Prior knowledge:
By secondary structure, the protein is an alpha/beta fold. It folds into 2 domains: 3-174 and 371-384, Glycogen Phosphorylase B (Rossmann fold); 184-368, Glycogen Phosphorylase B (Rossmann fold, 3-Layer(aba) Sandwich), CATH 3.40.50. It contains 15 helices and 13 strands. The strands form 2 sheets. Strands 3-2-1-4-5-6-7 form a 7-stranded parallel sheet, sandwiched between helices. A 6-stranded parallel sheet has the order 10-9-8-11-12-13, with helices on both faces. The chain starts with a strand and ends with a helix.
Amino acid sequence: MKNILLYDLSNDGHHYVYNSTVMNQIKNQYDRACYYTATDDEKIIEGLQENKIEVLNIKIKRKPNRYLSVGRRTILLLRMLMFARIRGFKRVHLFHLDSNIVSLIFLAPLLLGIQLTGTLHWSPTRKWKRRFLLLLLKSSLVNKMVVHGDYTQRKFIELLGTGDENKIVNIHFPNFPASVRRDEVGLKHIEARLAGYVRPYLLCFGGLRHDKGIDFLLGAMSSLRDREFTLIVAGSEGDFKEEDIRRLSGKYGIRDKLFADLRFIPDDAMEYYFDLCDAVVLPYRKLFSGQSGPLTEGAARNKYILGPGHGEIGHTIRTYELGETFESENEQDLTDKLAITIEKVNSVRKGRSVEPRPATENANAYAPLINIDRFVKRYAQFFSGG
């Protein structure tokens, strides 16, 4: 019997949408597919079971906005691997390989006899962690790995050397389908709140984690307070709370330019913000090493993207000419690039330019890469390839 066990203990944000999209495709490639996870959302369990995917749901106590320690992650991974052996799962896929690299080193003997694959969302920034991952790949304890972009794929192929090229598979992070359910009352409320704010609308979307640099962005906007624009900050509180955003925007003299919607943003509201905005701003710090969901959402709508010049994001913006990049954590450079962004999107709004970035061959090449059908097909190929 051909079977597969898929593992991820997080189902927040895009995690579950991503995972379920993959599982609903590959279930037809296996006699048995099981999702080993931890969730309090019964709808997630019911939805998967209705689609003939088994669910092993474990209970974990964890504090909000706190990561599990390496020790706890290792114990939980050990339990999953024991479950796989007892239940006869020969293939295991880690949907979030990033958070399990160290644990896999500790548990290496238990990986023998299991065909283990994984998805890497963030490239390790620490050298020792990168070496651990390379060791897992070279020894084939991790058989193959999905990455989200040309830059990361090329970097790992270079590090692995000749003969292991097929172990790194690039599947671009997709633009997920629009929600079919709209809360018209909620959207009208957002529209009414925005009525007094001026364009251009610069959207900073996502949870307020330290690595995403909202404080850095607010500081960079201080020198632009005499210009007309609105910064829309939409996403859940995290390392920064609403009072922090209010305090910082007041400190930098841009409180009147700030529109904050600090909560979990439902899909229909997310679509509204991305459709409405004039540009998407990604003020990420240097330690942010993954691909960006907001970049994908913005690019799918042909929005101007301002993001950091390093890593996968910088490579994507430059290669596909999606907008402008800045030197991460360089406040003056971000200020300068924000000024350019405002000028370019204003030119479009006032009819002086057709679009804020040139309609070159590269600029038109990115949308097909993030198509959901391509994403699903590429994953099907990944799992059928052994």
